[in-house]
Amino acid sequence: MEQAVKVWHVLEILKVTEAAFADKGIKNPRLNAELLLADVLKCRRIELYLDFEKPLTTAELMAFREFVRRRLKHEPIQYILGKTEFYALSFNVSPAVLIPRQETELLVEEVLKYLKETGAKRVLDIGTGSGCVAIAVAANSDCHIDAIDISPDALQTAKENSDLNNTTDKITFYNKDVLKEEIDLNDYDVVMSNPPYIPAEEMKTVDDEVRLYEPASALTDNADGLVFYRRLIELCQKAEKKLVLFAELGDGKAAYVEGLLKEKGVTNYRITEDLIKIPRVLVAEFN
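^ that's the sequence the OP posted. Answer follows.
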């Protein structure tokens, strides 16, 4: 006699998955389960509860189990889904790019505020990654942005995201190594960057979801965490015209970056705190 195949329903599988995620120490286990199942079922999260007795097909169950298997290994949910949101826009993400984070939205807000106040038009984005900062700024202002990155794979993702968000006429992407190539900033009014700022010695203590899956080149400078800040300041000081640097600051980096600025004689700057009062964005004027 054949054994009956268990039929899984939406509410039941959500409860089981939530427990499994919680057991593995995954934050927001219920939300994770809902997001993965909603993606498999091609529906909104709210619809899961409007039809909570819906049975999963064999194909849906297999797809969901594969998602769960990956999440239990602490692979970021954004990589599993292949997408995320940033500044109310949709972005494709892959292990080739850093996952856009909410705190980086403050960098976008500071740049947009300056562009609106001054009418500045020419912007350079250094280390564009997924393109999230450049695209968010371009989508909400009248400017042109040159965006550079050392990774061809990241640039391909950024170009796809620019097309996805209808900013292709506002952004030009370039493959450049900012640490090794000379970059003339005289064509720009604004330079913005969310650089790699985790010191090499701290990488071993970073959460597995970040350390094992996100690109190391976007996380660490393989030194003291200040290499890119030094380079940004150096490039800005070489410019023969006024420009403003907007740079995201890593946790605990504000004092060190202030020290670099004072060492180079840069006095016209401010640092903006994020919602939890962490110094997050440097705004510095040059020339």
